[in-house]
Amino acid sequence: MLLLNKDQVTNWLNKLMQTCQVFAPVKEGDYFCFKQISSCDQVILNYNNTRVPPKEVLFPRSEKLFCYRCENDGVQLTEQIDESKKIIIGLRPCDAKSLLLLDNVFSSDKYQDPYYLTRRNNTVLVGLGCNQPAGTCFCTSLGGSPFSTEGLDLLLVDIGDQYVVEVLTERGRALLSGMELPAADQEAQEAARMVKEGASLSSQVNLEGLKSRLDVNFYDPIWDLIHEKCLGCAACTYTCPTCHCFDIVDEAAGNEGCRIRNWDACMFPLFTLHGSGHNPRPTGKERFRQRVMHKFKYFVDNFNAIACVGCGRCIINCPVNLDIREVLAEIQGSEVRSDNQ
Amino acid sequence: MRELTKAIQETAQKLLQDKEVELVVGFAEGSLPLRNTPCFIRQPEEAQRLVWGYGCENNLATYLRKRPEKLAVVAKGCDSRSIVELIKENQINREKLVIIGVPCQGMIDRKKVTRLLAGRELLEAEVKDGQVVLKGKGYSEAVPREQLLHDSCLTCQHPNPVLFDIMLGEPVPVKEADSFGDLASFEAKAPAEKRAYLIQELSRCIRCYACRQACPMCFCEECFADCSMPQWLSKSSLNVQDNVFFQAVRALHLAGRCVDCGACDRACPTSIDLRTLTHKMVKDVQELFGYTAGVSLEEKPPLAAPLSSSTLNHF
């Protein structure tokens, strides 16, 4: 454990910006978001969390996969792989965990996604522990914690005028080279321990037995009502750090164009609309069920992990206050009726 | 508020008991401070879940289109005005809808609360005697309610429902006519500056379409933004122009239909200023056509009626 004075942060970031793209929380309007910074003045590390999660650094809302141009002697293709070195500073442990979950999707035996993985492998993650988790946070129910180091290269623990820096990987250590940070003394370590102890969560969800319920309740009448107030927008999906569905479109004009990957959302009717006009998820009921099932059943079936980190963004951002904690409680409280009965 | 809550519960219970309706759409207690949430009540004994508060910010008219069953809705002024327009556009069957009118004192804008608290988390809030008491870890602050109301509520001319079957509570006093003062700075901008402002705001758009989905009047079976043949605008957000184009067309499509409820603006997760566009449209429609959306069942929507000679003089 090392000790970083807060007044050294500017110096450190300036140094990092010379060789890497640095993404950090900046204020935009009333809220925060991760942006590539050009000056340290923009960075605000005293923040709760961002509206849109840092997944957008590795898996952007829209990205060009390749561009093409038809010429006399054929088609010219240019692949767009982002190989720049990046650092994300100040991401929360829940968001770091979400990237581990996304890795399952973009890197498997069957498929390696070069666009995501190139960025991922070139990105170093500097986490910031949560001294004061929000009332909507429930990371501990999902196996996380306000100071979890999972998936991080460095973790900063704010102890007032200084950060205690936990070095977790060699890549993390390399970021600090030349800084000559002193080891955290007894007093600083004690302060970090106190901060960690003081970070309690008021919110929890009960996931015990949820998976086995979802295994059998696809046709349960609970789905008829539970989605009813949902408007069918993607505020939850697009601000979710683990949602990863995308759509690929060609955008062309004349004899050239690009193939673009955009975020997509299971809450949209278009998401599953077939070319024939048939839609296997014709109403909000099927779409909302899909959202819950994907996170708490299908992802578990596929990767043995729940696709939720308890960041609470969907709770904060839902325009009608459809709270995932209440949805899960309602499913948990419902009478189990097996689909097979 | 407590009396209104009680009156709503009793009314809903009776309507369900007497089988006058199968469903009551209203608001329940939300899961966040200053937040109420839309709720759907089908059993008389569930009517006690209904409440009235300062977080009944959603426009419930959005849930009423093309319903098969006979139902009742708890409607404040703006909801009732959207209902009027939706009836005119044949989206709501008046015979099958019971409107429980509720006078509205304005809803609290949680974005204003966030701004005021500057990073401190709101854990609890209480509204009494015109004051909102905001509480969190180590603070308790009282703020006049007026300071925290939505901008659309501050200029609202129809806080009392314009159309109802049952009216609860006492009508609230109506404010002076909307002077559209909030638009002055936008209108004073040169075209290039207006464009720059919209681009700056819409650079935050993530195309979640919460604005469209929250709007009771956005009900096209296929939104132009979703069309692929022809594709009117890019599905990507690589170019901010496309985000601006989407909102500009959306606002234009709402001309003479938007009741300035502010639902789109509230729904936006990235806090884009959408109301400047919609409010400007409301103003233009008033000036050009002398039409205010949602106040009369008889008056024809301006874009569906022949232009009168006085309107033509405007152009």
Structural write-up:
The complex is a heterodimer of chains A (341) and B (315). With 341 residues, chain A is an alpha/beta fold. Chain A has 2 domains: 2-198, no CATH class; 210-333, no CATH class. Chain A has 12 helices and 11 strands. Chain A has helices spanning 9-17, 55-58, 93-106, 114-121, 170-175, 186-198, 210-216, 222-226, 235-238, 284-303, 313-317, 324-333; strands at residues 2-5, 21-28, 31-36, 62-71, 74-79, 86-91, 123-128, 154-158, 162-167, 246-253, 256-263. In chain A, the strands form 2 sheets. In chain A, strands 1-9-8-7-6-2-3 form a 7-stranded mixed beta sheet. A 4-stranded antiparallel beta sheet of chain A has the order 5-4-11-10, with no helix packed on it. In chain A, strand 8 (154-158) and strand 9 form a beta hairpin. In chain A, 40% of the residues are buried. The model of chain A has no long low-confidence stretch (mean pLDDT 95). With 315 residues, chain B is α/β, with parallel strands linked by helices. Chain B has 3 domains: 1-107 and 155-175, no CATH class; 111-145, no CATH class; 178-304, no CATH class. Chain B contains 12 helices and 8 strands. Chain B has helices at 2-17, 77-88, 110-117, 145-148, 151-154, 184-188, 191-202, 210-214, 240-253, 263-267, 275-289, 309-312; strands spanning 23-29, 36-41, 71-75, 97-101, 124-128, 131-136, 139-144, 166-167. In chain B, the strands form 2 sheets. Chain B has a 5-stranded mixed beta sheet with strand order 2-1-3-4-8. Chain B has a 3-stranded antiparallel beta sheet with strand order 5-6-7. In chain B, strand 5 (124-128) and strand 6 (131-136) form a beta hairpin. Chain B starts with a helix and ends with a helix. Classes of the chains: A alpha/beta (341), B alpha/beta (315). At the A-B interface, helix 9, strand 10, strand 11 and helix 11 of A face strand 2, helix 3, helix 8 and helix 10 of B.
